Amino acid sequence: GAVVSQHPSWVICKSGTSVKIECRSLDFQATTMFWYRQFPKQSLMLMATSNEGSKATYEQGVEKDKFLINHASLTLSTLTVTSAHPEDSSFYICSARDVSLSYNEQFFGPGTRLTVL
Amino acid sequence: GQNIDQPTEMTATEGAIVQINCTYQTSGFNGLFWYQQHAGEAPTFLSYNVLDGLEEKGRFSSFLSRSKGYSYLLLKELQMKDSASYLCASQDSNYQLIWGAGTKLIIKP
């Protein structure tokens, strides 16, 4: 199956710093990537939909100036958490859609655990 | 509106069968996914249904009834490693997934 990687897998940072998370589709082209956040014992919450070559579409309540998304190529999307605060500590997961598949399954990266001190 | 409901938690015995139900209300319905998620890990794909009926894949089967807005995931010959959360997600016409809260499945020996 298709593989999606994320980097880093975990990060600890100080409050006020910015953190960049990379999401790569390794063996397929992903015109659309999705960024999710998951708090402990809760389901996935879609933050934004990232389309290659265009601006990301953010879900209601997600600050686009705080969570910067760049989808510069068909295999890479980045999420930058700017001026991170402890409440931003969460499990961030990206997924990518393989347009060659008829049912558009989303393939998930392994996730990035962010801890803001 | 968009809504997904599934039980919060279920318990089953090793070697037994368990059925996890999911009901949905999705505008522009475009398929129903089931994912498995172990604690601290990302979800992994289990099944996709867009037509009515049962799809069987080894020990796991998934069923869909579009007219009833209903799906279930059937797990047979349960193993301890099947202890995980099972996420139901419906896909809309824009290919966005609407996620249920997940069903935590506890397997007892």
In short:
The complex is a heterodimer of chains A (117) and B (109). By secondary structure, chain A is an all-beta fold. Chain A is built from no helices and 11 strands.
Sum up the structure in keywords.
heterodimer; A: 117 residues; mainly beta; 7-stranded mixed β-sheet; 4-stranded antiparallel β-sheet; B: 109 residues; 6-stranded mixed β-sheet; 5-stranded antiparallel β-sheet; 11 strands; 57% strand
What does this protein look like?
The complex is a heterodimer of chains A (117) and B (109). Chain A has 117 residues and is mainly beta. Chain A is built from no helices and eleven strands. In chain A, the strands form two sheets. In chain A, strands 2, 4, 5, 6, 9, 10 and 11 form a seven-stranded mixed sheet that branches. In chain A, strands 1-3-8-7 form a four-stranded antiparallel sheet, with no helix packed on it. In chain A, a hairpin with a 2-residue loop joins strand 7 and strand 8 (76-81). Chain A is globular. In chain A, 34% of the residues are buried. The mean pLDDT of chain A is 90. Helices cover 0% and strands 57% of the residues of chain B. Chain B is built from no helices and eleven strands. Chain B has strands at residues 3-5, 9-13, 18-25, 32-37, 44-49, 53-57, 60-65, 70-75, 84-91, 97-99, 103-108. In chain B, strands 2, 4, 5, 9, 10 and 11 form a six-stranded mixed sheet that branches. In chain B, strands 1-3-8-7-6 form a five-stranded antiparallel sheet, with no helix packed on it. Chain B is globular, with a radius of gyration of 13 Å. Chain B starts with a strand and ends with a strand. The mean pLDDT of chain B is 93. At the A-B interface, strand 5, strand 9 and strand 10 of A face strand 5 of B.
